[in-house]
Batch of 3 targets.
Target 1
Amino acid sequence: MDGIPGPDEFRAQARSWLRTVAPARATHLEWGRGDDSVAVFENWTEDEERAHTERTRAWERIRHDQGWGALSWPAKYGGRELPAHYEQLYRAEESAFDVPRRTEIFPVTQQLVAPALRIWGTEEQKRRLLRPLLRTDELACQLFSETEAGSDLAAVRTRAVREEDGWRLNGHKIWTSGARVATWGVAVCRTDPDGPKHAGITVFLVRMDAPGVTVRPIRQMTGGSSFNEVYLDDVFVPDTDRLGPVGEGWRVALTVLAAERLDSGGLGLDNADRALDLARHLPRPLNDGERQQAADLFVRALVQRLIAVRVTSALAAGRAPGAEASVGKLHATATMRATTDLVQQLLGPRLAADTGEWGTFAWTEHLLGAPGYRIAGGSDEIQRNILAERVLGLPKEPKAAGR
């Protein structure tokens, strides 16, 4: 730990630096002022999404260039080689300052794709892409899900056919966040249709502005279009943009998914904190049941942060996380449900009636959006299967006759 500041010293340094570059965020004493959005999925137009992305990108570049970005990464990528959990220490300090809120494309780029590239990329790919991704000069989205595959990623049908100096991709991806603003898409494709299901997959880095790539927004019930369909029609990808060995795409994808479940370690925590603030500022005393619910949510959020630190440590060391990634994903969705339950109890009808009162009706966007994360990143059922098979050693359930 020589040369590494202690946690308290590090937080003081972060706080001191943040004061020079950003105004303080409204404190609890100013409850009821400012933005009361608790949306899980944003309802922006494409222009609004692009504008917010550019504001956030500008902030991420400042962080990176002044040594507060890729904290646990090697110096050659702009990092400081600090312990992985220092990222959580920094985020705790940053939350007190008015900086652009990171939409999903940013953690996908910096915490999912960049670590996977570090593990599976060639030296040329690492040299060419890692620093731009960490600095957000370039952004990446996931081209994983398909309508026919459901939660079974290994059932992908998007085909990649080998050509002399590259690959030709054809297929359809869905539920892609950030596709409208991404530079790259990480595409899981089938390269061997005749081999075993998990062995015939390869992953590619696809330029989102390449000929044949079409992005179509999906309207969601909250009114916005955070997700997109992506069509790949005869898209050419040079072999230099293949990520990992041919046929090893399942292992590459698992690395990204483990990181996605790591990202779930922070999922919904801002809203959980906001719900606890609501409990503190409610214009009436909490009853016994509400106090119990608030205490339960506080503990859940604390445990969720601790799980995230464990998974972050594995990724920072260049290792694929183990079962804790699935535990973290399950815990995060449970925390989101607990947040909804507490807010419903505290607000009652004010949650559903748009009276214009700050911090009330805005919670409908959390209520409508949070259930989606029981599916995103691998459904709760998939996570339980992973834990049952890989931790408890239980056998897979045999298929019923005729299935």
Target 2
Amino acid sequence: MVQEIATVLASGQETGPHGEMALRVLPMVGTGGTRNISDVLSLAGADMAIVPVVLVERLRDAKTFGDIRRRLVYITLLHTQEFHLLVRPEIGSPADLAGKTVSLGEEGSAADVLGREVLDALGVKINAVNLGLNTALDGMKRGQISAALLLSGKPVKLLLDLNARLEGIRFLSIPYSQALQRDYLPSTLRYADYPNIIADSESVDTVALQSALFAYNWQARSERFELLESFTQSLFSRFSEFLGDAHHPKWREVNLAARLPGWQRFRPAERWLDRRATGEATADNGTGNQRNPTRVSPDREEKLFKEFLRWRERQQGK
């Protein structure tokens, strides 16, 4: 998702006098977990992170990094991320994983922290190890590991390339138990998501989490604040470009206007949405000049989104 943001926002922009890009987004490899938040809070070059909301709220309530309520803001809610539980053929239910070796991804990742929480809620005590997905899959093929847990928005490209049927590896359902209903959402993995793993007539129930784009709360009118403001205006005004077939389908879940209770939204993002709500199509930089013109009208963007919703309902057989 970050790579797609970088690619789209770098295209079609005016360049400086020496050919430099007016706005460049630099993706950084992260785990999607606590380290992502730590980087935003401590690294001078890290402005934003995509993180599950539940995880950030766990860090806030535990004060792992002190009081982060004023140090972090959110730009927008994003897509849901699904738990993908891959298992060997002999595993028929989550209870069968008791005492077995299960990879929860990299240490400190969202899958590691929240995967333990999900399995504990189901009453399953495992022997957890922290391995990358490829290494975990190799261990599963050799019988050294019984399962691997991945947290990401479906479909995951790496899993689409997995010839799982030949190896007997499949997805295992994660029941939406009462213990998970406060913080987690029900979701389903379907044949349309993973035709190489799930049969046409089958589906796999799982749980999911809402993610959001969080940012460091830079001092207003500082250089980093203005860069973040420029990014936000570009992302919001060009959002319709992410809804096409060339981009990840998870973009079509995003509602820029959706609010995240308990957190402050980045002020330029709030102002952009307020202007959008009153029919303004361009962002004003405070001097009467316009920048980052909207490339698609709000009416056209709304029409495209409604067309997508109708298409998704047909795909799901509703």
Target 3
Amino acid sequence: MIVELAPRFLTWDDVDPARHAFDGADVAQTVRSLGPARCVPIRPDVPCDDPALSTWNIEVAESWANAMSYALVQHYGRWTTGWRWAHDEGDFDGGPIGNWCCPQDSITTSEETLSRVEAALREWREWLEDLAGWFEACPLDLADIEGQRILWEGAARNLILQVVDRTGCGSGWQGHCRQVLTWFLNRWGVAPDVAEGLVDGAIGGRFHSWIGPEAVVVDDVAEQLALSVQPTGGGFRADAPTQDHLQRWLEIRESVPWHEIADGGADGPVVPLRDGAADDIKAFDAAIEPARAEGLLSALELLRADAACGARLDFDLLSGWQQHVLATPRRPQFRGAPAFAKGSRERYGIGPDTRVRFETCLAESASGADQPLGLTARAARAYLDVCFFHPFDDGNARSAFLTLVFVLAREGIALDGVGLLRRVTFQADAPQDALALVRYINIHLAGTRRDTADANGSAAS
């Protein structure tokens, strides 16, 4: 949630080269000027099948690669997240990048690693520029769709074949193909949600991992897509969201079947062998900027003291932590204007009662006779409340993470890993995302209990 690191969420507006300047001549210097370039991890000198290598990959290398992605986003923009979209089963399935595979295989010496980052970023940008060129070569008009269907069909066929060639049809290639076709429709005026539906309908589940599509299938998908596009009036692009996603979240919040997933906190307190929250901050945030990590660690120490005292979760408590997170001279105030996130695709409204409603929601994170939800559901819900109320002008993702840690800590639970809780994006209008977050908390909690029990068992024997 710190940043949308998964390239499959990128929209055409996010990546359109015409919207995002990039000087290829400076990329080598820029990559090496970023925080993560100063702390490239040292790969353990062990065989590939040694468990120590896997542990290093999970605990160190992946965090460093995520930090580099974050740093690139901060410098260039969200479009850069595709630099790690490797072929086959790399960091993300089925991408167009050949200069990067995954942290375990691509992180070697410092200079080699940074050269791979630079080359992968150039490769991703070149691919986007190629796509833009193919899009612009077919200037299409929804107002004259009936006279242009052959052109739409030809353009779609060419794009499918280009993705096939670029990805090699490895694992998950069809996801990027779907995305490229959606981008194409979006470029020529079809709203993103409408475009996704048209593309899914045309493909109809006929593209599969590790299998190149037969020519007849490519032709049919392109034809079906061209036939499905409707004239002007069937769905325009929206340059900014008009929906109030905070209001939408409050509606979703009441409808989510929180009880569907068992409560991983029902078995009581657990003290992990390692501090997963602190370790993640030291690995991820410190690689971005040491001062960022120092602020988060200070806030983490403060929230745990608050949790030990059974403090009430409210805006004032969050603001006290956020002062450390943002290193501000005074506590940050509740925002006074509408807020935007996810590249302005989500808009969170503001009204005279917004803070009061936020406080009411936060209060529901506590346990009690009048609280029917389990701990992990309450922690997930509080996390999302912070995300979608978006109370601060900056640092809301970090505030949401700290909130989740606090809700668990107040009932004696800490986690030995938090990766699934910090690198995932959740949508305000998606009930399934809320349940997914509960599952992620349960996964980390189950792993923490298991590792703690194994260690105690070994010590006893």
